[in-house]
């Protein structure tokens, strides 16, 4: 009887529920038929015991079924845990990949811009020195070029430290004073470009608003990469930078008077990086040949997707539609610099 009970319960636990029910029913019918055929007074099992046997058979099948259900539930829980773990690992790998791409893009923008300006400044100084100027003029040329290279290198190191700061190990001290970044450094960026021989003119329209850090940095990097490409490839002399502060977005427009980009050449990593930055913030990037050179036109919404716009429009010191006096509160460019020509 013990062997039969274990076999019946195991059959139900293995998933053969119909077979277990049939076996229990056949067993109960066979026992009942055998008792009915006995002579009066010779029965081995009375009606009460027969009812108890039916209950035991049903209980054995139910216990086996419950074991099967529990095993299936535990298996499903295990599969869900494995799937969640795999999804978490996939998200971690994706996040790491995106962070590596972001750092690579930042390093490319910083080093590409700075090294390009250093190359242009050094090349211009060597070109003037090759003409064998008087000693006083040659010394002034060399001093001016070295000072420009020094300033550009210093700015590049500062930005590189800030970019690679995300790689700091856990437990290391973090800087207590944040370094200035974004459009607040646009004046320095324009000054370095002018030092490389470009006639850079800026035009700021509208009332500036405080920008979220991602939008602020993206705007600065787009202008920086545009100036880098102009200094390296365009052969231009004049660059117009326009910043239009609209109702809900910042409009960047960088145009030069160079030769433009070859029509049959695919866009480089710098232009692709600018487009990725703008699209990641919900913007609309345009990089194409313009009427007299190359044109970069990007629209960057003030609010980062999924976040609210911090603060509102600053009203102190300027009425709506008027430009605040003095240097630009966001870009650091003085109003008179909007039409000032480069020194060289």
Could you characterize the architecture of this molecule?
There is one protein chain. This protein is 55% helix and 11% strand. It contains seven helices and five strands. The chain has helices at residues 2-13, 17-36, 47-130, 135-164, 186-195, 213-234, 269-280; strands at residues 199-205, 238-245, 249-256, 284-289, 294-301. Strand 2 and strand 3 (249-256) form a beta hairpin. Helix 1 (2-13) packs parallel to helix 3 and helix 3 (47-130) packs antiparallel against helix 4. The N and C termini lie far apart (106 Å).
Sum up the structure in keywords:
344 residues, alpha+beta, five-stranded mixed beta sheet, 7 helices, 55% helix, rod-shaped
Structural class: alpha+beta
What is the CA-CA span between the terminal residues? 106 Å
The unreliable regions are: 174-178, 310-344
> Could you tell me the radius of gyration in angstroms?
39 Å
Largest sheet: 5 strands, mixed
């Amino acid at each position: 009887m013990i062997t039969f009970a274990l076999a019946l319960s195991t059959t139900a636990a293995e998933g053969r529920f119909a077979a277990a029910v049939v076996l229990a029913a056949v067993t109960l019918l066979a026992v009942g038929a055998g008792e009915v055929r006995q002579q009066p007074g010779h029965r081995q099992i009375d009606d009460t015991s027969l009812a108890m046997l039916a209950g035991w058979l049903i209980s054995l099948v139910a216990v086996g079924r419950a074991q099967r259900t529990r095993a299936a539930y535990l298996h499903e829980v295990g599969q869900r845990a494995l799937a969640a773990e795999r999804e978490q690992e996939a998200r971690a790998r994706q996040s790491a990949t995106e962070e590596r791409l972001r750092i690579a893009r930042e390093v490319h923008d910083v080093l590409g811009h700075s090294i390009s300006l250093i190359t242009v400044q050094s090349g211009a100084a060597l070109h003037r020195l090759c003409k064998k100027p008087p000693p006083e003029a040659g010394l002034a040329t060399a001093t001016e070029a070295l000072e420009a290279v020094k300033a550009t290198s210093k700015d590049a190191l500062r930005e590189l430290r800030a970019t690679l700061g995300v790689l700091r190990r856990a437990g290391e001290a973090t800087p207590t004073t944040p370094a200035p970044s974004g459009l607040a450094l646009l004046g320095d960026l324009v000054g370095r470009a002018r030092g490389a021989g470009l006639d850079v003119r800026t035009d700021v329209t509208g009332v500036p608003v405080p920008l979220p850090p991602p939008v602020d940095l993206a705007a600065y990097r787009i202008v920086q990469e545009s100036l880098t490409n102009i200094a390296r490839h365009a052969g231009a002399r004049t660059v117009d930078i326009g910043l239009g502060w609209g109702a809900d977005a910042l409009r960047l427009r960088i145009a030069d008077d160079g030769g433009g980009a070859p029509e049959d050449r695919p866009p480089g990593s710098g232009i692709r990086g600018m487009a990725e930055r703008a699209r990641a913030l919900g913007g609309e990037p345009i990089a194409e040949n313009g009427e007299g050179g190359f044109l970069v036109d990007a629209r960057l919404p003030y609010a980062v997707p999924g976040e609210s716009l911090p603060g509102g429009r600053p009203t102190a010191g300027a009425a709506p539609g008027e430009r605040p006096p003095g240097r630009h509160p966001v870009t650091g460019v003085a109003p008179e610099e909007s039409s000032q020509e480069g020194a060289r």
